[in-house]
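Hypothesis: this fold can be encoded by more than one sequence.
Test: take the structure tokens below, design a sequence, compare later.
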């Protein structure tokens, strides 16, 4: 009787083990396809001579600063990508990343060749990925990455994508990213994605400027942009929003509104740069949301001395913040603008993990489950063999 029960248990264990083995094998195969696709993307970027600048139309050029713009222009307005080999330093004149072109900087180093208004300017649908931009001790005090206004009538305006950049300055000089809307007629900057960025010791880390006030027939709008996972390290101004309203004139709408900022880590300037850092400054912006703003003041820790400034022209902005800012300097004159402090004073900063981390993590889990199922099957078979011989 005991032998029969043992055999039934072993048969059930065998069936369960086989079921888990087959199902986990299916999941592993599906997950492996995702990993293969990711690796194929990486491999595709290194087809051809990896020492040359290349574009998605098959063109190749010697890796010089001048040829970056040549490779972009050779796309002739078609959607495409330009790859620049890494491991080099490029001293560049201003580069215009044209419409629907993605410029992959290849994790090279880019410094300006003298002073100019900007280093990179991005047109509608353009992208800038994977690079180190350094203006320290170059005499450059302009803008590293410029996003300019486009025709407001085109509802797909901008769509710029900027990812994985490290930008460095010194003595709080220059602007890292400038959303600049100053054209004639109706202009807009919308649907820009700015993510996984570090800026260090700039005057402005992220600046949004609507220069031309709205008067019914002309004006500038900076709306519906998504800025996330930004580490601002000793910048004088973290997020700086400015709407240039005409004094004494009340407009019926804000030019800079409906933008979403999340997972912003701001570290106060130390040394001789400033006595406190200006985390968020809003001069005329409405209905912007700032979520998970983590700030740390190394100069005044543990209590902190951080500045948040919202002027009287700003309406219904919402700010959620945390960190070592118990004595934060909050100057809030905006109507219906609300500050929420949550979390502990010494709460840890957020951790930015690779966007594809979950795929590899799942693969490891499925592999472990399948290994356990193999053990169940083997031990069940051994048990059945032994009981049959008893």
């Amino acid at each position: 009787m005991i032998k029969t029960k043992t055999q039934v248990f072993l048969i059930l264990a065998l069936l369960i083990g086989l079921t888990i083995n087959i199902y986990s094998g299916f999941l592993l195969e599906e997950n492996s396809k995702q990993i293969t696709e990711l690796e194929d993307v990486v491999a595709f970027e290194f087809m051809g001579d990896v020492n040359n600048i290349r574009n998605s139309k098959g063109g190749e050029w010697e890796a010089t600063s001048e040829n970056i713009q040549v490779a972009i222009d050779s796309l002739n307005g078609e959607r495409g990508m330009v790859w620049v080999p890494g491991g080099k330093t490029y001293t560049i004149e201003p580069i215009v990343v044209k419409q629907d072109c993605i410029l992959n900087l290849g994790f090279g180093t880019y410094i300006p060749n003298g002073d100019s208004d900007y280093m990179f300017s991005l047109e509608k649908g353009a992208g800038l990925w994977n690079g180190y931009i350094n203006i320290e001790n170059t005499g450059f005090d302009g803008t590293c990455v410029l996003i300019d206004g486009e025709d407001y009538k085109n509802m797909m305006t901008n769509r710029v994508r900027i990812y994985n950049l490290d930008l460095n300055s010194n003595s709080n000089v220059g602007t890292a990213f400038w959303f600049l809307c100053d054209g004639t007629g109706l202009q807009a900057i919308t649907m820009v994605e700015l993510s996984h960025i570090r800026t260090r010791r700039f005057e402005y880390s992220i600046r949004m400027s609507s220069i031309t006030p709205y008067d019914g027939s002309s004006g500038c709008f900076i709306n519906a942009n998504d800025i996330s996972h930004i580490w601002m390290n000793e910048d004088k101004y973290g997020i700086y929003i400015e709407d240039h309203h005409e004094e004494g004139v009340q407009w019926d709408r804000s030019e800079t509104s409906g933008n979403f900022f999340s997972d912003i880590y701001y570290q106060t300037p130390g040394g001789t740069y400033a006595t406190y850092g200006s985390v968020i400054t809003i001069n005329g912006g409405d209905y912007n949301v700032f979520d998970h703003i983590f700030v740390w003041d190394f100069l005044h820790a543990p209590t902190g001395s951080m500045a948040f400034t919202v002027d009287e022209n700003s309406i219904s902005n919402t700010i959620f913040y945390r960190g070592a800012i118990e004595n934060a300097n909050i100057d809030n004159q905006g109507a219906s603008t609300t500050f929420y402090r949550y979390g502990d004073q010494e709460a840890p900063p957020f951790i930015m993990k690779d966007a594809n981390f979950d795929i590899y993590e799942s693969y490891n889990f499925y592999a472990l489950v399948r290994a356990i199922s193999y053990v169940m099957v083997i031990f069940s078979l051994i048990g059945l063999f032994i009981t049959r011989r008893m």
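DSSP finds three helices and 27 strands in the chain. The two ends are 13 Å apart (CA to CA).
Hypothesis status: open.
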